[in-house]
From TrEMBL:
The gene is Uox. It comes from Ptilorrhoa leucosticta. It catalyses: urate + O2 + H2O = 5-hydroxyisourate + H2O2. This is Uricase. Pathway: Purine metabolism; urate degradation; (S)-allantoin from urate: step 1/3. One of its GO terms (molecular function) is urate oxidase activity.
Length: 284
């Protein structure tokens, strides 16, 4: 049991310059005894209102240096404070506020919410067990208008999809990775590096791009690049929900439409998902 959608804004002031972190937290506990379920005995139950207040107090006292460290702080607090807690899991996601710039100059106290993907993390721990940390990015919308195709696929009497060697590749990406057992990582730096890997693998070189023969290959390319460059990542899951575009037929309007005006196919849409990890992690 626990408390969901604990939302708050943490404001930090360094002289005239302000810093903000707006987050949403979910914190869930499992107790050493199920007596509240079986017997109606609430003597060990930590009220969810108390859970909410603890999260807010930790934000006030510790600040939020990174989402991962804040999730770790929450786990550590419940494990060290309450002997009846057998397991704790914390989920934290961030509202994507970025500092405003005017003529290249960063503003000291103004921000803009930029929908370029939502950062999130999870931390979980069993009593007498290791602290596990996961992180990720979701709702990241990506598109490239060429250097993508889909050919040579299996066909039977139900196949109506034509082969395409040049199409738009567009989708909403969800990516989650595991650090394995928690260590003293620079979580902010690692997250930014992984995001850069995702964008690079999706798009390819800026002057020419890189051909994608399928959504599946793009997913794998993202995973392989992250694992090759970020040694702290042990397992990475990527889900790419696809958005397809159809060329509008303008013949009745007396116009030729050479893939210049397209409309999105709202539903149904495709989805590709894969989880990839290091061999030593699975052997362990």
């Amino acid at each position: 049991y626990g408390k969901n959608t604990i939302k708050f804004l943490r404001l930090h002031k360094d002289g005239k310059k302000h810093f903000v972190k707006e987050v949403e937290v979910c914190a869930h506990l499992r107790l050493t005894s199920p007596q509240e379920y079986l017997e109606g005995n609430n003597s060990l139950v930590i009220p969810t209102d108390t859970i909410k207040n603890i999260v807010l107090v930790l934000a006030k006292k510790n600040g939020i240096s990174s989402l991962e460290q804040f999730a770790i702080d929450i786990c550590n607090h419940f494990m060290t404070t309450f002997c009846q807690v057998a397991y704790v899991k914390t989920y934290v996601q961030e509202v994507p506020w970025q500092r405003l710039h005017e003529d290249g100059v960063p503003h000291i106290h103004s921000f803009i919410c930029v929908p370029d993907g939502i950062r999130f993390c999870e931390a979980e721990q069993c009593r007498n067990g290791p602290l596990m940390v996961f992180a990720g990015i979701k709702d990241l919308k990506l598109m490239k208008t060429t250097q993508s195709g889909f050919e040579g696929f299996y066909k039977n009497e139900h196949t109506t999809l034509p082969e395409r060697h040049d199409r738009i590749l567009c989708g909403e990406l969800f990516c989650k990775w595991s650090y394995g057992e928690c260590k003293d990582f620079d979580f902010n730096c690692i997250w930014k590096k992984i995001r850069e890997c995702i964008l690079e693998a999706f798009a390819g070189p800026p002057d020419c791009g890189e051909y994608s023969p399928s959504y599946q290959k793009t997913v794998n390319r993202i995973q392989m690049l992250v694992l090759s460059r970020v040694s702290q990542v042990q397992v990475i899951e990527v889900v790419l929900n696809n958005t397809f575009y159809n060329v509008v037929d303008m013949k009745n309007l007396g116009l030729t439409n050479d893939k210049e005006v397209l409309v999105p196919v709202e539903a149904p849409y495709g989805s590709c998902a894969c989880t990839l990890g290091r061999k030593k992690f699975f052997e362990a």
